[in-house]
C-alpha cells in the first residue's frame, strides 16, 4: 500500500537562502489593517540602499531581491535602484499596492530591468480606487485591470494579499482567479497573525544568529493588537480550505524557528491550460512534487549553484514540471491525468502557464513567551548590516 508523501522541507540555511527583501522607504499612500510598518515618511538615499544590497550579497547567495516599503513606487530613484541590482546579477521583484502606477512609470521599471511586480490589493485596505466595493469580484476587476497593464509593459505580474479570518471564505475564489487569469503568474498570501504581547513580552534572544533587543517604536497599539488577534489565520486552516474546496495540497514548506515540523510557509504548484472559447483547464501538483524539488535542490548543492527562487517558467519547462510530478507520484491515475492535460496543448490557440501559490505566517509569541518566526526567514531584510525578518524589522534593532 502506497503512502502519500509529506511536503518537502526547503533546505534553506545560512548563505543558501536565495531571497531577501530591501526596504527602500517608509512612506505609503494607502492604509492596510495588518501593516507592520512605522510610517515615518522617509525614503532611503540611493547610496544607503545599494550598501544594504551589497551587504545582502555578502550574507546570502541571492537569486532574487524584492523591493518593498512603505510603498516603494514613491521612492524618486526606484528605477536607478532596480538597474543597479540587476547589474549585480540579481533579479528584482517589486511589492506595490499599485495605487498610482501609470503606464509611463511601468515602462521605466521595465527598461531598468524589473522582472516581476507583486500587486497588493485586498479588502481591508483603505484606498480611493476601491471606494465602491471590496468583495472579491470588485477586487479582482481592479487586479485584472492593473495586471493587464503591467504585463503589457513587459513585466510579469503576480498578486500579494493579506488573508484575514473575515476573508478566509473568499480564498477559493481568489485562488481560482489567480489560476485562470492569463496576466497573473502567482499568488503570495500573508496570513494575518496574532501580535499580542510582542511589544510588551519580547525577550532578548537570537534572530538569524544575531542578538536583538526590542525597539521603542512599533506601529499600532493595543487596540490594533486585539483586532489582529481576532482576524488571525493559520496555515493549517489554509491547507484544509484548499484541500476541501479545490483538491489542492502543498508540496513544500519552510519550517518554524521553533520546530522543523511546523509549516510556516507553504508552497503550491499548478498548471493552467488556456483554451480558446473554453474555460481554462487546471492540473494541481501534489506532495509528490516535493521529491522533484528535493532532487533539484540536492543537484544545485552538488554543483555549487545558488538555489532557485520564484523562477518564471516558460511553456517547455512548465510541461517538464508536469511530467516530473507525474513520474514522482508513481500513480497510473496521475500519469493518465497528466498525459491528457498536456495533450490539450496540441489544440490550436491553447497556451500552457505555470502558477505558484505561497502562504506565509507572521511572527507570534509561544505560550512560554518566546518569539516564533520563519526559520532562516526567506523574507529577511537588512537593518544596520544585520539580517532580521522583515515583519519584525520595526520591532527590533541591533543590540
What this model shows, in words?
There is one protein chain. It is built from eleven helices and 20 strands. By secondary structure, the protein is an alpha/beta fold. Helix 1 packs parallel to helix 2 (78-87), helix 2 (78-87) runs parallel beside helix 3 (103-112) and helix 10 runs antiparallel to helix 11. The longest helix has 17 residues, at 136-152. The radius of gyration is 21 Å and the shape is globular. The termini are far apart. Residues 211-222 have low confidence and may be disordered.
Radius of gyration: 21 Å
Specify the number of helices: 11
Q: State the total count of DSSP E strands.
A: 20
- Structural class category: alpha/beta
Stretches where pLDDT falls below 50 for ≥5 residues?
211-222
Which strand-content bin applies to the residues?
Answer: 15-25%
Bulk shape: globular
Quick structural overview:
By secondary structure, the chain is an alpha/beta fold.
Sum up the structure in keywords:
399 residues; alpha/beta; 11-stranded mixed beta sheet; 3-stranded antiparallel beta sheet
List the helices and strands and how they pair.
Elements: E1 8-9, E2 19-23, E3 31-32, H1 46-59, E4 64-68, H2 78-87, E5 91-96, H3 103-112, E6 116-120, E7 125-126, H4 136-152, E8 156-163, H5 171-180, E9 184-191, H6 198-201, E10 205-207, E11 210-214, H7 222-231, H8 235-246, E12 252-255, E13 263-274, E14 281-284, H9 289-303, H10 315-329, H11 332-343, E15 351-361, E16 364-365, E17 371-372, E18 380-383, E19 386-389, E20 396-398
Parallel strand pairs: 1-12, 2-4, 4-5, 5-6, 6-8, 8-9, 9-15
Antiparallel strand pairs: 3-7, 10-11, 11-20, 12-13, 13-14, 13-15, 16-17, 18-19
